Amino acid sequence: MSDLAGSQTTQPHNLGPTALEQPPCWWCCTCVRKASCKRKTGNLNKNNHTTNCFIKCLLKLRQHKSVPYISYMTMRNHEMATLSDREYFTSYEDLEIHRLMVGDLPRTTAYQEAINRNKHLFHGKTVMDVGAGTGILSLFAAAAGATKVYAVEASGTAQLVNKVAKQNGFDEVISVLNCKVEDVELPSGVRIDVMVSEWMGFYLFHESMLNSVLAARDRFLAEDGVMFPSEARLYACPCSLQGLYEEKITFWNNVFGFDMSAVGSSVLDATAKKPEVCVVKQDDLLAQPVCIKTIDLRWVETNEITKFSENTFVSITKRAPYHGLCLWFECDFNGLDYNENGDSIGELVTLSTSPFSAPTHWKQTVVTLGAAGTERSSIGPEDGLQTDHDIADDTIRTKSKFIEVEEDEVIGWRLEFEQSESNARHYTITLQMLDPEEDEHPEPCSCGMARCLIIAKLIENEMQAAAGTKCNPEPVVVEETAAN
């Protein structure tokens, strides 16, 4: 996978109430102020900027707190950072990338166990490995008894798959197709029984091959064919990155006796311009995780992943600074079936990239909020948003503030993912913070607010009543009529 951040140029920019300059970066930012009270706080002076390079943030001040909520954030890849297909596939000729992926034990072991524990799906079957890389998944399938494995790989590593197959005695089983899967032509009448692929990217969708996998499924998979993985789920959870922020930002507060916090402030600005790919400790999660997207790989259509969004509300489990939303995914390999005798066979194997599981090369992705505001030590809290760049007097010390959330506090957000029209492997992520009191909650909602608890109970009762009606239908009364 390519680095999410890429190279970027960071310029100091004004975060005043009327306008702000935007830096020429891959993930860039625009911030405006909007108070939750009725009085206006300033006029928005819109800046012209490239359509494909912006993050927009609305900072909403709650009257009972001096710390603002970041209300709207959009992240989008710069066109200059978009790789062409040729560049994308060539990047995978770096064998160090493959060593890291194959050496990712949770990842590779999950595929191995999914195939080995479900050999009934592979034995004597025709398999396609989409994006075969160096061929490890093709080898797993061949070793599980597949009659034929089509290893599709568009990069130059396809030549190595041929050699690896021969080294392991599978050169008659594994056929290597050195092209994009969209260009594959199979022999007449050949249908695929099992399609296996490691297509997932950061936060499931970044730099993923999902569109290509679905195109291959629609062209080649048999009617009773199986997709491995069979299901993918994307999760989100508010989190704190205290350790990471102390390492990257607080470090600059005292460097060999010198105050270099201005450097730390610039680092802090950069955190709001791009997602942070890092290992998040489970202790840094601030609520119960929520599944925000489920994909059934056998039936999902491309329009379902082109653009989607989800409103979510959760109850905070502990007091902490709220730094962003942590994203991760899980993939199921469902091989459960029944044999001719009606006995259950096969297993369900899950690959998880969550903070509760062993770290993978995907780690977790955090859509960061950055600093919510600053406070001058010589002046009390102000209505206006202040940053280091707003302060003319360099002797006035500032202290960065993040959103502080309290235990049992309910927070909400709306995450929207939109696929780039020019590159299906790239997505725009939009994060909008919601007001739990004013914005509509999904039904059911497990946030813990009284109204949501009542609605959830009503839905549960209705479902139980419906289930009871199906199991115990009301008897049909037939009225008897007197014989003529």
Secondary structure elements and their pairing?
Blueprint: E1 30-35, E2 56-61, E3 69-70, E4 72-75, H1 85-91, H2 95-102, H3 105-116, E5 126-130, H4 136-143, E6 148-152, H5 158-167, E7 174-177, E8 192-197, H6 210-220, E9 221-228, E10 231-239, H7 242-248, H8 261-271, E11 276-278, E12 290-296, H9 303-306, E13 307-315, E14 320-322, E15 324-334, E16 337-338, E17 344-345, E18 348-352, E19 364-368, E20 373-376, E21 398-401, E22 403-405, E23 410-419, E24 427-434, H10 450-471
Helix pairs in contact: 3-4
Short description:
The protein has 484 residues and is of the alpha+beta class.
Give the percentage of residues in beta strands. Answer: 25-35%
Q: Output the radius of gyration.
A: 27 Å
Distance between the termini: 84 Å
Main β-sheet: number of strands, strand sense, barrel status? 6 strands, antiparallel
Helix content: 10-25%
Give the overall pLDDT as a whole number.
76
CATH class of the domain at 92-234 and 289-365: Alpha Beta
Task: Report the principal-axis shape.
Answer: globular
CATH superfamily of the domain at 92-234 and 289-365: Vaccinia Virus protein VP39
Class from helix and strand fractions:
alpha+beta
- Unreliable segments (pLDDT under 50, ≥5 consecutive)? 1-82, 373-400, 480-484
**CATH level-two architecture of the domain at 92-234 and 289-365:** 3-Layer(aba) Sandwich
User: Total number of β-strand segments?
Assistant: 24
- Output the CATH topology of the domain at 92-234 and 289-365: Rossmann fold
Tally of separate helices: 10
Keywords: Methyltransferase, S-adenosyl-L-methionine, Transferase
GO molecular function, one term: histone methyltransferase activity
InterPro entries: Arg_MeTrfase, Methyltransf_25, PRMT_dom, SAM-dependent_MTases_sf
Pfam families: Methyltransf_25, PRMT_C
